[in-house]
Amino acid sequence: MLRLEAVHAYYGRAHILAGIDLAVERGEAVVLLGRNGAGKTTTLKAAMGLVPVATGRVVFLGADIAGRAAHEIARIGIGYVPEDRRIFAGLTVMENLAVGRQPPRRDAPTWTVERLFGLFPNLAAMRDRPGGRMSGGEQQMLSIARTLMGNPRLVLLDEPVEGLAPAIVEEMARTVLALKREGLTVLLSEQNLAFARLVADRAYVIEKGQLRFSGTMAALMADAAARTRYLSI
Amino acid sequence: MSVLAVRDLAKSFGGVQALAGVSFEVAAGKMQAMIGPNGAGKTTCFNLLDGQLRLDAGRVYLAGTDITGLPTRRIWRLGVGRTFQIAGVFASMTVAENVQTVLLSHRRRLAAFWPRVADLYRDEALDLLAQVGMAEQAERSCGVLAYGDVKRVELAMALAHSPRLLLMDEPTAGMAPGERMALMSLVAGLARAREMAVLFTEHDMDAVFAHADRILVLDRGRLIADGSPAEVRTDARVRAVYLGSDAVAEAG
Amino acid sequence: MEFVAVQFLNGLASASSLFLVASGLSIIFGVTRIVNFAHGSFYMLGAYMAWTLATRLSAGPLGFWGAIIGAALAVGVLGAALEVTILRRIYRAPEMFQLLATFGVVLVVEDLALLIWGPADLLGPRAPGLRGAVDIFGQRFPEYELLLIAIGPLVLVLLWLLFYRTRWGTLVRAATEDREMAAALGVDQRRLFTAVFFLGSVLAGLGGALQLPRETINLNMGFATVVEAFVVVVVGGLGSVPGAYLAAFLIAELHAFGILVFPKITLVLIFLVMAVVLIVRPHGLLGRPFVGLPASVVSPAAVLRPSSPAARWVGAIGFVALLAAPFALGDYALTVATEIAILVLFAASLHFIMGPGGMVSFGHAAYFGLGAYAAALVASRLAAPMVAGLFVAPVVAGLAGAAFGWFSGRLSGVYLAMLTLAFAQICWSVAFQWAELTGGDNGILGVWPPAWAAPAAAYYYLAVALSLSAVLLLRRAIRAPFGYALRAGRDAPLRAEAIGIDVAATRRIAFAVAAGSAGLAGGLFAFFKGSVFPTYLSIPRSVDGLLMVLLGGVNSVSGPVIGAIVYTGLGEQLVRFTDYWRLAMGVAIIALVLAFPEGIAGFAARLADRRRGAPAEDAR
User: Fold this and answer.
1) Mean pLDDT in each 10-residue stretch from start to end of chain C (620 residues)?
2) Contact B146 A221 (CB under 8 A)
3) pLDDT tens digits for range A69-104
4) If you count Cβ atoms within 10 Å of the first and of the last residue's Cβ in chain C, which end, N or C, has fewer?
């Protein structure tokens, strides 16, 4: 569904991505693991058109989308949930959801506000609360719900459990699994291996802007050397 | 006596506790790393130490002097140097001019309207640049340097007033792996030679464990470990924070 | 008591008009971050178009209201067209260049209006059915004003419904908060920006059109209005529509009652209120701090290199030409040259704070004018010699600059620019209204140099000597440690503080020095013209200065010199060859902005670099 081919990207003058190749198939949940600063966020932003792709291709459903504007990429069915949530603080829960709304697609799960409230019961109780007056966990739920309003084919989740309390991490894991059951394709970036292990089928490990490992989650769990080398201290 | 002593530092932003009850010391001539996941409070801690943020509670002592709540420029004059996570150099100046500006500030000559900067403290600036390996690029504009080189210019700028304490926020971010080790070795050598205390944050664990004399670990605003690299490496709480270590992976 | 009530209603009616214009400006700024100086021109166009439509259409209510609505919509289309054709190309350019482009539009519109509607004031038809007056507390109050009073809150409610009850409004508010995130959710910014420009311009056009029965329509109404609208927007909080109404109400009532209580200083009062609000609440009454609003509105600057041999030769030849000019030029050309010499200093002084300091001043003429008035007052009231006047001018202006620097505290970017505008307007209104001291609109006449400096050539040499020395001193200061401290504070304020620089103090000193230099230019100008008028401190003169600096290129030490020569020279030539010099100038400015967003000197330097094959990394 999504394929990155030899993607290079810069942040200012810093060379962040030095040739990333990865693929996500329909219905999969794939995790991008790596330490802080490894290039996970930049990889997702490059796919979303929020960071310019210097060289390389980003292929989505057979078309090269590198260089397209972010709103065009959103409209062909890639949803993006940023690391820092970026809730519109002055907009209510309902309004935040409205911003994300797009027409339904035949080949992707269709979401309505009511269905999303079923998935995130907390949000249903605070329809008219401004986004700026919600807790971090609630904002994270809203950020995901807002992206789902666009009925995406593929969702990019950037460190969805960063800074969240353990209980909410579990809830988030259940949520991501529920999304997968709906038929949604998910590419997430994570530092939290325990969380990744619960939700992902396959993993890529990125370090210093390059891929160091690629394989199933089970293979990664079996490879203690790789985990220690790239992820632990 | 330790160069830096921090007692019960606390800071919250809009109800979110960014740092709580953080106490530690940094000794002269030592490299001390501060590590922790994103959002653990490392940069906040640095901003409190150099006066960019007002702290809610706690005390900061520099060589026994209470510097709590002083403005950034006073703290600098008392001997605290700093490099930034997102490199802060003066983009409209050449590499040499960046260092010259710091030297001019150190000598309190920045109010002068007449002398040409081109003639002032140039040799001293080139000498500092030579120490960080940037002498050949002295005439280039700082706005066009490679990121790793900008970091080295920052280091030369931070050394220009011979600080007693150097705060380095991710000194090697954006550098190639080879460069990282070289820079950290350079800093470690300078710390020993100048009897300068260095407190740094770093994501590259290879760099941390190769060069730190002591390591602090922050998680969600709290200090969860403070010890030698060997102690920190085997600390169960640290391993729990840095997921990927076997214990937690299996528990998950 | 009755009188107070009626005065209050008068204030409400004015508040409505002001709110219409200001809300449009605020909405446009909130979403696109463009400070649209052409907004006042749209207001004026609304009035002119409504006049044309109303005089062409039937005289009945349908014709009148059709004209009002038609004019508003037509102005909206023009606004959208401006966005699509010009502004869209420069969203990524530094903010100052966007401003410059909208200045260009102001000039173009002003002359097009002159071309189409002529220079005479136009009087529109009264509103059918609302020609009468009603009795309020025994006083006659026009019905049309009552309607206006209602329109303000009505539009406020409609805008509220639009922003809070429609999906489009939600998207606009989302984009105002975080454009990138909105785009990642599929919101097309380009269409949103065009639509916002349309809406904002409709509001400006409506505001102008509704003036039809109230006041005469003239070519000056645009600029006067945009300045007041800026005050309203800044006091209310950039981007806040309810804030705009609150501020419009405040300002209009202040105006209505100020005229009764302090007739002399109403204008001062208004700008004083703005200054106080900005100092106490730097983001306005209902405003929130904007994320991602750059503190400096100038592009990241390039390294200053020593002058190249070629530039030194040009300088030397220029110096010889300056000395030889009186032998080669006639008297008229010599006076033009004298004026240019003085304005070069004015431009260089503004450049000092804008370039190395990164602070934009919309009111630099205040210091020029203060210098001129100080010199003229010393000469005329104290009968002191010219030398004393030329000494007092920079001192007075410099002190005023220091005082302003102290007040402006830590404001930066657009807010600082607005405060400079307020300060200049205060100075202007003092000069205009304190007639006992300043002669008001008539100015101070008979400020002539003594016999030894009276001949054109003699005064030319005097002006060149003083101006050139001051400009060279400013240039030297930029290359001296102080200039580096100033640039350090502009490039990276946090870093500058972290190496012991007191950024705020450095900026204050720079402001005082720049103000003093502008004051010297003003003093020279006073004796050159033999008179001073309030226009010396008016906004158009401040704008002249801005244009000179921006045309020359902010990042170049020689930029202001080149800019002043080109701008004054071009203006002088255009005035001689065409009545529509503003049109030509406006088109030239827009073309220049689109072609060389780094200014002429910056472009020339890059060209020279390319020819030498040097890496194109530094401009000079």
Assistant:
1) 84 93 91 88 96 87 92 97 90 75 90 93 86 81 91 95 93 88 93 95 96 90 85 86 93 86 74 80 77 46 76 88 89 91 95 89 93 95 92 96 82 76 84 87 91 93 96 94 94 89 93 97 96 89 86 79 86 77 84 74 64 41
2) no
3) 999 999 999 999 998 889 998 899 999 999 999 999
4) N
CATH of domain B4-88+163-251: 3.40.50.300
What is the rounded end-to-end Cα distance, in angstroms, of chain C? Answer: 65
Put simply, whether A135 touches B (Cβ < 8 Å) is no
Report domain A2-230's class: alpha beta
C174 touches chain A (CB under 8 A): yes
- A195 contact residues in B (CB cutoff 8 A): 252
The candidate with the shortest Cα–Cα distance to C228, out of C27, C32, C20, is C20
Asked if the Cβ–Cβ distance from B88 to C306 is below 8 Å, we say: no
At residue A18, the 3 state secondary structure works out as strand
Taken in order B86, B90, B94, B95, the sign of the CA dihedral is negative
Residues in chain B with CB shorter than 8 Å from the CB of A193 are 243-244, 248-249, 252
DSSP C73-127: HHHHHHHHHHHHHTGGGGTTS-HHHHHHHHHHHHHHHHHHHHHHH-SS-B-PPPP
Residues in C touching A150 (Cβ below 8 Å): 185-186
Residues of A in contact with B249 (CB under 8 A): 193-194, 197, 221, 227
Of A12, A37, A193, the CB nearest to B243: A193
Closest residue in C to A89 (Cα) is C177
Nearest to C452 by CA among C464, C442, C461: C461
Which positions in chain A touch C180 (Cβ < 8 Å)?
50, 70
Instruction: Name the burial class of residue B94, with classes exposed (0-12), middle (13-18) and buried (19+) by CB atoms within 10 angstroms of its CB.
Output: buried
DSSP letter, residue A20: E
Q: Which of C194, C193, C212, C204 is nearest to C228 (CA)?
A: C204
CA B45 from chain centre, in angstroms, equals 11
Residues of C in contact with A86 (CB under 8 A): 178, 181
Q: Are C152 and C12 in contact (CB under 8 A)?
A: yes
Chain B, 229-248: which have a CB under 8 Å from a chain A CB?
Answer: 232-233, 238-239, 242-246, 248
Alpha-carbon distance of C233 to C248, in angstroms, equals: 8
Q: Which two tokens stand for residue C409?
A: 């505290």
Domain extents in chain B: 4-88+163-251
Local structure of A144: helix, strand or coil: helix
Fold of the domain spanning C2-280: ABC transporter involved in vitamin B12 uptake, BtuC (1.10.3470)
* Nearest CB neighbour to B93, from listed C303, C501, C502: C303
DSSP letters spanning chain B: --SEEEEEEEEEETTEEEEEEEEEEE-TT-EEEEE-STTSSHHHHHHHHTTSS--SEEEEEETTEE-TT--HHHHHHTTEEEE-SS----TTSBHHHHHHHHHHHHTT-TT-SSS-GGGSSHHHHHHHHHHTT-GGGTTSBGGGS-HHHHHHHHHHHHHTT--SEEEEESTTTTS-HHHHHHHHHHHHHHHHHHT-EEEEE-S-HHHHHHH-SEEEEEETTEEEEEE-HHHHHH-HHHHHHSBTBHHHHHH-
Distance from CA of A113 to the nearest CA of B (A): 29
Number of Cβ pairs < 8 A linking chain A and chain B: 81
Q: Give exposure, A193-231, as e/b (b: 16+ Cβ within 10 Å).
A: bbbbbbbbbbbbbbbbbebbbbeebeebbeeeebbeebb
Q: What are the structure tokens assigned to A209, written together? A: 């802007």
Alpha-carbon gap, residue A37 to A40, rounded angstroms: 7
